[in-house]
Design a protein that fits this description.
The protein has 356 residues and is mostly helical. The protein has 15 helices and four strands. The protein has one domain (7-77, 115-354). The strands form two sheets. The chain has a two-stranded antiparallel ribbon with strand order 1-2. The two termini are 19 Å apart.
């Protein structure tokens, strides 16, 4: 797998812009917080763009994967394991340094899974869940697949709303922040902490973009585009359509879970509001506006629209706005608002094809 010759230039330009934004917003913590949160939500959009724009599979349940990652990591890092410290599994985790001793709000000693191991565990468990869900539902097509993933999202919403281990309607709070090089990354800290989180968030997003772009430029990406154009024709040419669609579904779910984990530890909490149907509709609307097969467009619109939403620009009509955006795009611009052919093809054009 390799990037096109223009991808490093675009990535470098994006890094320069992000650095400038970080320096200019460093003295405005509220802007920094909302830009950072927009980056974490953008991870969901990148994965969904791969699934919808390249594999041609619609999903209305990615808010569920976002919440699965966040809730699993939050539960692991806030559950007290002192009562089970004699068990072989807890002792094994402790011997590997996967646990950390801390205190709760009342000064009570706790033994919990450390944030970084919990992050890895959340991604792995989300991948397994996505694989188990995807194996039957990925055989569906069109609106049948959309309804199946919608049902999955509703199931996750009811689970987190009713399970005590997930805090029910209150969610999970007091989630510990990540540690990086011995420094706590907190949302409620000095502007320096916010700037640090800002750069970490966008480093993760850029890494996800590099992975996604390399994927779509590879043999797998060509197979996915053939599936999107005509699944029957691709299958007749020997493409394992089921396997490619399933793997893309799992990868997009892991992207969503990564965003959920990072946002949960950044905010210090997660609640059922992250699992609602309108959250999934929002992600689909953003991908549709940016262009179904346009990773850069999806990222750009994801950041802009999420930032405006977090700023409260849409007020109480937030869900209404995203629903209206999705309807309008599907009617008047089904290929997205940023469907500029040369720009859209730029990141995915290999050096060989550009020379004819």
């Amino acid at each position: 797998m390799r990037c096109g010759r223009y991808v490093p230039v675009l990535a470098a330009g994006l890094v320069v812009v992000l650095l400038q934004l970080g320096l200019s917003a460093g003295d405005r913590p509220y802007y920094m917080t909302q830009i950072t949160m927009s980056a974490y939500y953008a991870l969901v959009v990148i994965g969904l763009c791969l699934l919808m724009g390249y594999a041609g599979q619609a999903s209305l349940g990615h808010a569920g994967f976002f919440a699965i990652g966040g809730y699993i990591s939050a539960a692991l890092t806030t559950s007290n394991l002192l009562a089970y410290q004699a068990s072989p599994l807890v002792r094994w985790c402790h011997s590997l340094g996967l646990t950390v001793e801390q205190q709760d709000l009342y000064g009570k000693a706790m033994l919990c899974i450390a944030p970084w191991p919990a992050f890895v565990a959340a991604l792995l468990l989300t991948g397994v869940i996505a694989l188990l869900i995807g194996m039957p539902v990925i055989r569906l097509k069109g609106h049948y697949l959309a309804m199946a993933t919608l049902g999955f999202g509703l199931i996750i919403y009811r689970i987190v709303l009713g399970a005590e281990v997930f805090g029910q309607a209150d969610g999970i709070s007091s989630v510990p922040p990540f540690k990086l090089a011995g420094t706590l990354l907190q949302v409620n800290g000095s502007p320096a902490f916010r700037v640090q989180n800002y750069y970490i968030a966008w480093a993760v997003v850029l890494a996800a973009m590099v992975l996604a772009i390399n994927l779509v430029q590879s043999r797998i990406g060509r197979a996915l585009r053939s599936i999107h154009q005509s699944e029957e024709a691709a299958h007749s040419l020997g493409v394992d359509t089921y396997r490619y669609k399933l793997y893309t579904f799992v990868l997009s779910a892991v992207f969503a879970a990564a965003g959920g984990v990072l946002l949960t530890h950044y905010n210090g909490s997660i609640g059922p509001s992250e699992v609602t149907v309108m959250k999934s509709v929002r992600y689909v609307a953003i991908v549709a506006v940016g262009g179904m097969a346009n990773l850069w467009g999806a990222l750009l619109m994801g950041v802009i629209l999420n930032f405006l939403s977090l700023r409260g620009v849409f007020g109480t009509y937030d869900d209404t706005v995203f629903g209206a955006i999705l309807i309008a795009v599907m009617i008047f611009a089904p290929e997205g608002l940023l469907r500029i052919p040369r720009w859209r093809g730029l990141p995915f054009r290999s050096a060989r094809s550009s020379h004819g």
